[in-house]
Amino acid sequence: MLALGGMKGAMAQSNYGNFTKKVRLGFNLDPMISTMNPQTSGVNRTGSKMGLGFGLMADFSLNPSGNYSIASGFNVVLGGSKLKYDAGLGLSDYKQLPTEYNFKMTHIQVPVALKLRTNENADGMAFWGQFGTYFAFPVSAKVNVTNLSQSADNINILSDVNRINIGLLVGAGMDYTLSESLTGTVGLIYQNGFIDATRNAKWNDGRVNINSFALRLGVYF
């Protein structure tokens, strides 16, 4: 019985070791600049917004050395922008006059990217780059509205935005070994949305893309 218990313990440790070699888990905090980019006349961006992303990072190694992996995770992303709509465009309650909308949006985001990583050098540094896509789902969407005759804050527009956003994700950065079990990471991440963020039937604004440029700060365990 003791021998059987020892064998089970050894197998469990072996399986755990194999898992940690194949999967790197960590947490990230990403200060960012978020912009909404209208693609039609009559709608103009009047301001970007400082945003923030945070959540879980997960790298699934494709080879034993970890030079190739699928980078994914689960993130909460806070962003938005300011857009000015000409009269006749925008939400029906406010389109009688030119109106500025200050968008405040929260998305749940799942990235999927191919990540290439160098071997660590003598100083414990490794460099990485990634290319892929992401899937983002709005869980909160509000606007502050201002025109010559009206002003309103925190109007819920969740039903007036599209329920998914997909786009291009590219990034590059550096990992640095902090200890035997901790690795810090820093990089730059650019995201370019492909899908219209606002529902055209509600806004009559053509296509509005959400883009962001973020500083990746994180730690792997």
- Helical stretch tally: 2
**What is the CATH topology descriptor?**
Porin
Which structural class do the helices and strands define? mainly beta
> What is the name of the CATH class?
Mainly Beta
Average pLDDT score: 92
Protein name: Outer membrane protein with beta-barrel domain
Domain Outer membrane protein beta-barrel: 12-184
InterPro entries: Beta-barrel_OMP_2
List the helices and strands and how they pair.
Elements: H1 2-22, E1 23-38, E2 43-47, E3 49-61, E4 68-85, E5 99-117, E6 125-146, E7 151-156, E8 165-177, E9 183-193, H2 200-203, E10 208-220
Antiparallel strand pairs: 1-3, 1-10, 2-4, 3-4, 4-5, 5-6, 6-7, 6-8, 8-9, 9-10
Protein name: Outer membrane protein with beta-barrel domain
Domain Outer membrane protein beta-barrel: 12-184
Pfam family, one: OMP_b-brl_2
Descriptive report:
Pfam families: OMP_b-brl_2. The chain is mainly beta and 221 residues long. It has helices spanning 2-22, 200-203, and strands spanning 23-38, 43-47, 49-61, 68-85, 99-117, 125-146, 151-156, 165-177, 183-193, 208-220. It has a single domain (24-220), classed as Porin (Beta Barrel). The protein contains two helices and ten strands, in the order αβββββββββαβ. An eight-stranded antiparallel β-barrel has the order 1-3-4-5-6-8-9-10.
